[in-house]
Structure formats: structure tokens, C-alpha cells
Specification:
Blueprint: E1 3-11, E2 14-21, E3 24-28, E4 30-35, H1 44-49, E5 54-58, H2 59-64, H3 69-75, H4 77-81, E6 86-90, H5 93-99, H6 106-115, E7 120-121, H7 134-154, H8 170-181, E8 187-190, H9 194-197, H10 202-215, E9 221-224, H11 233-238, E10 243-246, H12 248-254, E11 257-260, E12 263-266, H13 278-282, H14 285-290, H15 294-319, H16 322-330, H17 334-343, H18 347-353, E13 361-362, H19 372-381, E14 389-393, E15 404-409, E16 413-415, E17 428-429, H20 435-450, E18 456-460, H21 466-472, E19 480-482
The structure holds zinc ion (ZN).
Zinc ion binds near residues 275, 279, 280 and 301.
Length: about 475
């Protein structure tokens, strides 16, 4: 009995994996619906029928409930909730801080979570909000680390989650990732990100997640605690977040909000239901608005949308098309786009985890020039021996002789003809060449010429882009000539 995580496929820093929790195995990326035993708008058994493999509930609620406490201790959570999948419990740290319940201690909550049969147990960490100063967040992180170590004395069979805290401070997130990695816990939630997601601070979200990921071992299963809305799952998955949870499906339903993978609507705004799920195909928008079961039907739709997005992300990772999904999703809200631009600053870190071949590379605008595949291709260009004389055919037309011929495909740049069918050159689809794309290709050319100082280079064609070539290759002037 323990928790194990096996990575099957990778794309960018995203992973398709198997999370083994005791005897149960679930697929990642994974969505954990949040269940409040007092308000079961969709029953856990119904969620199971919808394809939900794991859920999360709150240990504090159970411990304080006259209705559920004794039953949970006697029968266990699985029986009380009527759910056969994996059950994770949150410690109740949030409720404890709100209600100031000092009697509910760290060792008490983890022992209680164990006693009610939780399979992923969370210690009482401190979620430092973004307004904490460095000093405050530092102290809170010390307490969190101390509590994780204390909880490990009680939960010593691998079922303890080790949360990564540190607030908005990236150095503290790195320290937290580093200290957590030394404890060898497989399941590592990144905490305190809800206050960043609620006001759409996605670029800050990317900064803290990438900081934590830089020091966490790649083998750890990462739970982005409190995420959230399906529109940001792809961005989070690209950073290597494997597990999400959703209270939003029910909270949104209560407020008449209808989720889509690219944002939410107020139900009153909708004349049509733009979704393929059962709720939306068996009800019109008017019927849904008037239904006595409106909240429940909306919650089911919201859950279906969230699960479908998880499925889409898994398929994208399998194929190697996650960049295209991230690009598509992040263009749906300007602040998500901020997060996307922030992520593109980490190409070097992302590229180390990325895979070598993918199904395809579809160019989707200048952001695509900063994708990991372009960076990896450019890096590999420095290893190509261009011989004594090399001819780079910008527009493919052969002019003159040379020992080595290179063709040219932006945004990658020069490539030997034998790479024509290989990824990424062969499986990439580009619109008509634009200046951004060509400039990225010239960066590849600069690397090839720069790493072959003995080679005489001739560049043929590409007359309309010569200014860009000259700009990008300024420091290599004299190392090539045009024909
Ligand atoms: Zn629907």
C-alpha cells in the first residue's frame, strides 16, 4: 500500500500517467470533484457513473458533523459517500483558520483522515495568501514543513500528500519544492493558488507553479489545489500539473453559471446550449432556465464539460498537440493570454521535459515561434557539420553547387534534405511565411553558421526577407554571401 505515479506519455511538461493509490489505479491528468457531504447536488455514485475515478472531500466537515462523524469513523468514507474510487481528503486548514478552531490540530486531522479511510491525506498546511510579505510567508512555510514532517510520523505508508507553499514568492516556492522533494512524497499539491486564479492573475500563477516545479522531482504527481475552471486546465497541464479539483461545477451551478471550455455564461444570457452533453441535448435553454432541477442539471453539465476538457488534454498529450490546445484556450481571455506569454518565457525549462517527436506542429501565430520544438530544433542545429561549402536555399530553388545543401523552413530554419520527412520539419504546417516566422528561422541559420566557423556559406533566394537576414545575422557579416 502506497501511492505510485507512472508517467506514460509526455508533452511539453504535461504528462499522461497512472496514479496508483493502494490497489486502485486512476489516469492522469485527473479531475477530483469536491464533495460536501451536506450538499450532494450530484451524488458520488452518479459522478462515478459519469466517469469520475476519484474525488476530494473535507475532513473538517466530517469531523464536525453530527450526521456524518460517527458514521464515517465506523463505516468509512467510501461507504458513507457511496463511492468506490479514490477518495482524497483536505485537512480543513482553511476552515480551521476561518473558525479559529485551535482544538483541531495537525496530528488530529491526519489521524482522523486515516480513521475515516481517506486514501490521500493532507496535513494542516498554511496557505500563504499573495499579500503575505516575504518574511511572513517564510515563517508560514517553516510551519507547513514542520507539520508535514510531523504528519509523516503518523502517516508513514506513503499516503500523505506533501503540499508546496510559499505564497507569491518564487524563491520560497523553490525552497518548498526542494524541501518537499527530500521527503520523497509522491503526491505533492501546490497550494494557495486560488487567490491567484480568482482575480485572473494567471501570469503570477505561472511564475509560482514553474518555480515549484523547478525544484520538485519530475516523478512527483502534482495537484494544483483549487483549480478550478476548465479553461485553465490546459495551461496548468502544460506546466506539469497532473491533478485538478473542482468545486466550481457546483458553485457555478448555484449561481446559474454555465461553463464552457473557453469561459462561462450566465444561463439567462443563453438562447442556445452550445454543448454536446446529455443535459444540453435533452433540454433547450428555455427548458433548463425553467427546470425545477436547474441547479442540478447545470452542475451535471459543468461536470461534463470539465471531464471532457480533461479527456481532450489527455488526447493532446498522447498526440503531442498540447501546445496547440494551450494556444487555443489561452486566447479566450486576455489574462489567460498573459499566463500563456509568461509560460513562453520558460521555454528552456519546458524543453528539457518535452518529447522529441509529435504528431504535428501547427503554426498558430508568432507565439508558435517560441514553442519548445523550435528551441529544441535550434539547439540541435549547433551539432550539424556543414562541411567546407554550404548552400542554404531559402525558397528551395537550386542555384549553384556546394558540398552541402540546406533547405529552409521557418520558424525552424535551415535543414538538410534528409530531415525533410522527420519531426518537426516534416510534420509542420505553416501558413504563408510572415516576418516573425522568418526571423525565428534566421535565428536557426545564425546558430548553424555560428557553429561552423570553417564553412563557406552561400544563401540563395528569400530576396524579400534579406533585410531580416541581415539584421539577425549582423555579427556574422562576412561569413556568408548571397547569390
Ligand atoms: Zn452540456
Amino acid at each position: 500500500m502506497a501511492i505510485n505515479f507512472e508517467i506514460i506519455h509526455k508533452d511539453i511538461m504535461g504528462r499522461l500517467g497512472k496514479l496508483k493509490v493502494g490497489e486502485k489505479t486512476v489516469k492522469t491528468p485527473l479531475l477530483l470533484p469536491v464533495i460536501n457531504p451536506h450538499i450532494q447536488i450530484i451524488k458520488p455514485s452518479e459522478l462515478e457513473d459519469m466517469g469520475v475515478e476519484a474525488l476530494i472531500t473535507n475532513a473538517y466537515i466530517f469531523s464536525k458533523s453530527s450526521e456524518f462523524r460517527e458514521r464515517a469513523l465506523k463505516e468509512g468514507l467510501h461507504s458513507v459517500l457511496g463511492f468506490n474510487g479514490v477518495i482524497m481528503t483536505d485537512s480543513g486548514a482553511f476552515q480551521q483558520s476561518v473558525y479559529g478552531d485551535v482544538a483541531f490540530s495537525n496530528s488530529e486531522t491526519v489521524a482522523f483522515q486515516r480513521a475515516i479511510g481517506s486514501e490521500i491525506i493532507v496535513p494542516m498546511d498554511i496557505a500563504s495568501p499573495p499579500d503575505r510579505t516575504h518574511e511572513e510567508a517564510d515563517e508560514e512555510l517553516d510551519i507547513t514543513m514542520q507539520r508535514i514532517r510531523e504528519a509523516l510520523q503518523i502517516i508513514d505508508d506513503g499516503h500523505l500528500a506533501a503540499p508546496v507553499q510559499g505564497g507569491i514568492h518564487t524563491d520560497l516556492r523553490k525552497r518548498a519544492g526542494h524541501e518537499v522533494s527530500e521527503l520523497n512524497n509522491v503526491f505533492c499539491p501546490i497550494g494557495a493558488v486560488v487567490p491567484l486564479m480568482e482575480p485572473y492573475r494567471y501570469s503570477d500563477l505561472v511564475k509560482v507553479v514553474m518555480a515549484a516545479k523547478s525544484t520538485l522531482p519530475p516523478s512527483a504527481c502534482i495537484h494544483l489545489f483549487g483549480a478550478g475552471h476548465p479553461s485553465m486546465f490546459a495551461l496548468a497541464a502544460a506546466m506539469g500539473c497532473d491533478v485538478f479539483d473542482s468545486a466550481a461545477y457546483a458553485l457555478y451551478a448555484r449561481e446559474d453559471r454555465y461553463m464552457t471550455p473557453h469561459g462561462s455564461y450566465k444561463l439567462a444570457e443563453l438562447n442556445e446550449l452550445p454543448c454536446a452533453c446529455e443535459v444540453c441535448r435533452t433540454n433547450t435553454a428555455d427548458e433548463l432556465k425553467k427546470s425545477e432541477e436547474k441547479e442540478r442539471l447545470l452542475a451535471m453539465h459543468n461536470m461534463n464539460v470539465s471531464l471532457a476538457e480533461i479527456a481532450r488534454i489527455r488526447q493532446a498529450i498522447l498526440e503531442g498537440t498540447l501546445w496547440e490546445l494551450v494556444d487555443e484556450r489561452c486566447r479566450n481571455h486576455p489574462r489567460l493570454y498573459d499566463g500563456y506569454l509568461e509560460l513562453l518565457k520558460y521555454t528552456d525549462q519546458l524543453e528539457k521535459s518535452d518529447r522529441i517527436t509529435k504528431r504535428r506542429f501547427f503554426y498558430r501565430g508568432k507565439e508558435s515561434c517560441r514553442r519548445t520544438e523550435v528551441a529544441a530544433y535550434h539547439r540541435n542545429l549547433s551539432r550539424i557539420d556543414a562541411g567546407e561549402k554550404a548552400l542554404v536555399l531559402i525558397d528551395g530553388k537550386k542555384t549553384g553547387d556546394a558540398e552541402n545543401i540546406f533547405l529552409f523552413k521557418p520558424p525552424f530554419g535551415p535543414y538538410p534534405p534528409e530531415l525533410k520527412e522527420t519531426f518537426p520539419v516534416g510534420q509542420s504546417e505553416m501558413p504563408e511565411t510572415d516576418a516573425d516566422m522568418f526571423r525565428a528561422g534566421c535565428q536557426g541559420l545564425r546558430i548553424l553558421i555560428g557553429s561552423n566557423p570553417e564553412t563557406e556559406f552561400t544563401i540563395s533566394g528569400g530576396d524579400e526577407f534579406r533585410q531580416i537576414i541581415d539584421e539577425e545575422l549582423t555579427e556574422l557579416k562576412g561569413r556568408f554571401r548571397y547569390v
